[in-house]
Structures are given as C-alpha cells and as structure tokens.
Amino acid sequence: MLSCLTWSVCTHRVINAEKSEFNEDQAACCQISIRRREPGLEEDEEWLILCSTQYLTGSYWALFDGHGGPEAAIIASNYLHYCIKQKLEEAVGGITEVHPPMHLSGRCVCDSDPQFVQEKQIHAEDMVVGALENAFQECDEVIGQEMEATNQTGGCTALAALYLQGKLYVANAGDSRAILVLKDNIVPMSCEFTPETERQRIQHLAFLFPKLLDGEFTRFEFPRRLKGDDVGQKVLYRDYFMEGWGYKMVEKADLKYPLIHGHGKQARLLGTLAVSRGLGDHQLKVIDTNIEVKPFLSCIPKVNVFDFALHDIKEDDVLIMATDGLWDVLCNKEVAHTVRSFLAENRTNPHRFSELAKCLVCRARGKKTGHQWMLDDSHEASYDDISVFVIPLHNRDADC
C-alpha cells in the first residue's frame, strides 16, 4: 500500500539556466506499508483497514537524474518504490526478527541453520539492505523492457532513502549525494560512483571479458592519451589490480582509446558516460561502434545505514539529498554551513525547511551575469539541473 506522506519533507527543483527544455531530474516520496503476504495473494484493501497495526510502515524519498532524456528517470520515479515494497514483503519474516531465520517457513531442515545465521552475524538490517539491492536490479530490468518497447534510450542515476524501524537506509547508484547535517557533525550517507572511483572494477571486467572492448579500447590507465611517439617508452600506468602506479613499456595496442578517459567531471566511461552506476542505458552503445556500455554500468546501489537509536537527534538535524547539480559547486561543509545558518535565523518560520531547500538550489544556481551564471564568490555556477530534498529528522516518528 502506498499512501500520502505525512512526515514533513521539502523538495525544490529548477531547470537551471534553461539547460534543457525538460528537467531530466525526477523526485518521489511516499510511505511504504509492508505486510506478510502469501505468494499470489492479491492486495486486500479491507484487510489493510481492519488490521492496520499488523504491517510495517516506512518513509521513502528518491531522486533520479536522467541522461539522454528524462524517460528512464520518470519510469524509475514511478516504479522503484513499488519494487522496494515488493522485495521487503518477500523478506518481511526476516526483517521483523533480530536474527532472521534460515527458512521463512519456520522449519529447521539442518541443525546448523540457526548457528550459521549467528556466525555470519546476519541481522534484520541486512535483509533490508538486500531488499534494496534486489529492488534496484528489478527496477533496472523494468526500465530496460519499457525503453525497448517504446523504442527509447537513456538512463538515470538513483538515490533513495528509506526510514524503517528506527533506521535510515540510503541506497545510491550514481553521482547524487546524501548527507546528514547534525548539530556538531556531518555524516556522509552516500558516495559518488564515477568512472574514476570505480576504475578497478571496470578494468577488471575488461580483463575478464576483453571482447567487450571489441579491440577499440585499452583497459590500462595512463596519465594522458598516448601518442605514436610514446611507443617503446616506459610510461606510468595502472591496471585493475593496482592502487599504486607502475611503469609499462608502451606497445602499439596501448595507443587505443582508454576505457576510462579524462579526470574529474570530464571523466567518461568508454568516452560516453560520466557515471559508472545507474539505471537504464540498456540500448546505449559507444558512438559509431557496436560496443555496449551497459555491461560496465552497474545498477546495484551501495547502501549505508544510520541507526537513530545510537544518536541524540536535535531539532535542526536534517537529511540533505541532492543531485550533482548542487554538489558540483558546493561541498559538504558549505552545504552544512548554509543549513545551520538558515535554520538558526528562521526558527519561527513554519515553512523553513521548504525555504531552506529553495535557498540551497538558488545558491548553486547563482545569478545570471551577461551570458553566464555566477556564484556570489564569482565562481561559475552550476549549469546542471538541481534537485534538493531537505528532510527534518527530529519528529520523524510522530507520523510513522
């Protein structure tokens, strides 16, 4: 069951500097109600009304940053929460137990089953994490089917937060970011997945399946694109198993286009994508080739967990979720400073969290000066779409 969200959340979105005709960012928030259900049993609205205390309720927020068009982001915003609900219901018998049983039926086929669960230290939160990972994968499959059926292309990043049983789960596949701004601390709740941050995973896949590169790319990383005069020279390089750098005698094959090329925001996977995890892009190929990008693009999120029972949450503590349009120009400390200053100056404003979201968007958007958008410090502003969630944490259980 999906119902209107009553836990106060605020989002503000903008098409920045008329970057695109349609905003490629999408957002979703709702409550997700999870109950034990036998396979094949249809939803029973009357049962939910009469037995409302017999299901778990979680709060859900998500941001999707589309590329190649908004279509994949729209599908994800309409479907990911359903996938999460479905996967949580499949595992609800384990989620409600401190130590999830080996068999949800309650049977103990082998005497060592309970011991295995304890030795592996499997807890309820591990079942939630697994449900989120499975949900992202299923949503990715649905997007692939929908896009193929409608002859559309494109993909999106996905950043989702789920509050369930006193814990906050943040699942990220892409380069959006979530942080907790607490009174005396900043807690990163996600990490960006880019071709650079996942270099070793991507290179290792190319090592295992070299045919994926179709002889057009080299998996090795070099400080720059090599030229013909580099052949026979020893140059710095890295392979999939290397954190450090070594020297390699350049061969003619090393002159091929790098699997990962560029640095920072200019880094591209197969010269095509700026992210290494996300949903969709099943039909995406490197231009003028038959090389598919999807095998290197993982849809599986990294999930971080925050246990509220271990922290003393204050009135102005918030979760900030935003697409890369915000983080391209503002770091965690700058965002946290804005959050704390704004909330301290607007304590009596009943709409202060909405206004804070708007403040963050406007700060990253900057002001138009001539043909450019500039920040207050005269640096160039973000030219990307910007979406921000500001989620107050203090009264989180009042409506859940």
TrEMBL record:
One of its GO terms (cellular component) is mitochondrion. SUPFAM superfamilies: PP2C-like (SSF81606). GO terms for molecular function: [pyruvate dehydrogenase (acetyl-transferring)]-phosphatase activity. It holds the Pfam family PP2C. SMART domains: PP2Cc. Residues 6-393 form the PPM-type phosphatase domain. This is Protein phosphatase, Mg2+/Mn2+ dependent 1M. It comes from Apteryx owenii (Little spotted kiwi).
